[in-house]
Amino acid sequence: MSQVEKKQRERHALSPGQKILFVAALLVVFGLCSTVFLDLRSMEKANAAPADVSDWPNPVTAYLMADEGQLATTFYNEGLAPAGEYGRGTPIQMESWEPFVAENGREYYHVFLDGKMGYVPCSNVTDDQSALLQESRVYVRSTVHMLQDFNDIAIGPLAQKGTLLQVVGYDHFKEDGSVNLYHVMMGDDFGWIKSEYVVQEYSEAMTHWDEIDTYQEKHVFRGDGYGGGDAGGLDYWPHEKGDFASVGNKMPEDVYALFIPASVISPESAQQYIELAKNTKANAFVVTLCEDEDLAYQSAVFEQYDILSGYTVHNTVEDFATAIRMLKDAGYYVIGRIDTFRDTPLASLRPDWAVTDLGGRLVTVLDESWVSAFSRDVWQMKAAFALEAVDTFGINEIQFDSVRFPDLYDFDDGSVQLHNSLDESKAQALQRFLTYASDLLHDHNAYISVNINGETGNFYVAPYGQYWPAFSDVVDVICGMPYPNDFGSFLENRQYIVPYRMPYRFLVTWAKMVAARQEECGSPAIVRTWMQTWDAHGYKYDGETIRREILAMYDQNVTGGFMLWNSSGSADIADKLPEALRYDYRAKYNEAAAQNVKLSRYLDISTEDAQTSG
User: Fold this and answer.
1) CA atoms within 13 Å, Cβ hemisphere of 429
2) What is the pLDDT of residue 398?
3) What is the CATH number of the domain that holds 165?
4) 512 domain-assigned
């Protein structure tokens, strides 16, 4: 090498410090490239089709376990980013019990869940199902009857608000990680209770929904003015409403229903009603299952209770099934109506369940006898009948009528035997019956509705025990019966209102009251209203008059639909239906709302009740 070449090489050589900097730069570049490569691999995994466990040699089954006080845990994707919350008790498949240790030192199991590969913290996985339930005791927030068995309808002990329950087990976890039914011990008694009726702390159990503004200022303040019960003694915590569209039972957004009596329903009449309805906007039928002495079909439940002989049976099981199937196959939503506590044949056959005098003789009101709503035997019998109709015939919804006590104005206190062994108010017994029936029907994927007197649009507890907020809070649909013919005249804004002659004006007033009642409970039901269709004192309830009744509700934003009441059935008012059921009121209401006008104005229909009595 020449001296010149040697000097040139020395001039370009790196100093020791420069060599260190060069190596460091190479390491940084290599690290960045590795990071990009790993990120690309992670993105590739994340965007790949869902993996399965076919490549795992010995996958194991385990369950998600939530942290203390929680109901769910986090699932992480392959890049350890949160990818959803899953309830405790959710079954998972794991690659093995060998944990993966993340850079932060936390240990995870590699799992397959909901069609995806990912990771779950080791502390949130167990193969011991008994370890999933952490609660050892709960407190009752809403007074309710427990069940004797988790898969039966037998009524167990009454669990009062604030009562401590020892948890001994459960039936299953729901998707969100909450328990469906707790198996509990109350003193020496065992039973099953829904998780929505209990809480973890006593102080929380003793609170009420909207404690200050609604419970104290409205319900407690109203007290018990007429003997039906103290409004403050009722429950207003939100109740879960039914939604069974995913299992094929979809309730129309607004129901427009025709009525079929138990004495009329048959395969032949079903076809006639279908023909009647198809030229209207009707989308549902209310079919009475039991009323007065009429029983729509030969019920196995009535045979089991040995009471079938007291009723006139109008169909075999096969014929009734055919009739209901025809209605449903034609696209109609079917509501099964049950007369609940007004039941003369049942009272006669089971006087131990009936409202009697102190000598055991049946009390009759307007030539009708009643069974007591305090009787749990009656509760079970009516609930069993409702479930039979749902399970055997696919009835979409059960509508309980006469959920009240009889009007006992002619009887002094103490002269009537009501079998009130639990020292309840009338309103408490009625709300608790509806809670019991609602839970059972929801377990069978059916909706529950209740008919309630028009008087209950007022703010007080009625003397027969009905109170709008307490009923609306529990059921899916509340069906007021504000028949103008049932109300006396009154002054409003210096105008004298005669309800039967001014149905639009009267129902506007009633709808405003109902809207106020709906705001007084934790989970208000859908409002679906019974409409008067019969003439009153010479005032003609023709199709246009019925339409004005309907418009009164929609003009006050009380939607949910309506049902046309005529005791002999809607076929007897066929001439009124084309005009009354001319519109899809919900669709037109939505169009009117978009223009910020009332429905009657949008349709350009006069609401003047100008007709005079003849």
Assistant:
1) 25
2) 99
3) 2.30.30.40
4) yes
Q: For residues 80 and 39, what is the distance between their CA atoms, to the nearest angstrom? A: 12
Both 561 and 594 in one domain: the answer is: yes
Pick from 1-5, 55-59, 608-612: least confident: 1-5
pLDDT value, residue 602: 98
Q: Is residue 86 part of a domain?
A: yes
Query: For position 73, what pLDDT does the model report?
Result: 97
Residue linked to tokens 């009905």: 466
Residue 409 is predicted with a pLDDT of 75
**What residue numbers bound the domain in which 328 lies?**
257-602
pLDDT at site 410? 65
> What is residue 9's predicted lDDT score, i.e. its pLDDT?
45
Q: Is the pTM of this model over 0.70?
A: yes
Q: Residue 481: phi, psi to the nearest 5?
A: -125, 70
User: What is the residue whose two structure tokens read 């609306």?
Assistant: 472
Tell whether 99 and 155 lie within a shared domain.
no
Of 165, 184, 207, which residue sits at a domain end?
Answer: 207
Same domain? For 124 and 142 the reply is: no
- Three-state secondary structure call for residue 159: strand
> So what's the pLDDT on residue 143?
98
Span 487-508, average pLDDT: 92
* C-alpha torsion sign, points 161, 166, 172, 175: positive
pLDDT for residue 274 is more than 60: yes
pLDDT digits (tens, 9 = 90+) for 7-24: 444 444 545 555 444 444
86 and 114 in contact (C-beta within 8 Å)? yes
Among candidates 12, 146, 170, which has minimal Cα distance to 439? 146
Do 125 and 142 have their domain in common?
no
- 120 shares a domain with 142: no
Give me the half-sphere count of Cα atoms (radius 13 Å) on the Cβ side of residue 282.
28
- Angstrom distance (rounded) from CA 581 to CA 589: 14
Q: d(Cα 517, Cα 505) in Å, to the nearest integer?
A: 19
pLDDT for 33 beyond 80: no
> What is the three-class DSSP state of 66?
coil
CATH number at residue 289: 3.20.20.80
C-alpha–C-alpha distance, residues 265 and 270, integer Å: 6
Quick one: three-class SS letters along 286-307?
Answer: EEEEEECCEECCCCHHHHHCCC
User: Does the residue 559 lie in any domain?
Assistant: yes
For tokens 């019925």, name the residue: 546
Domain assignment of residue 125, yes or no: yes
The CA distance from 444 to 242, in Å, is 10
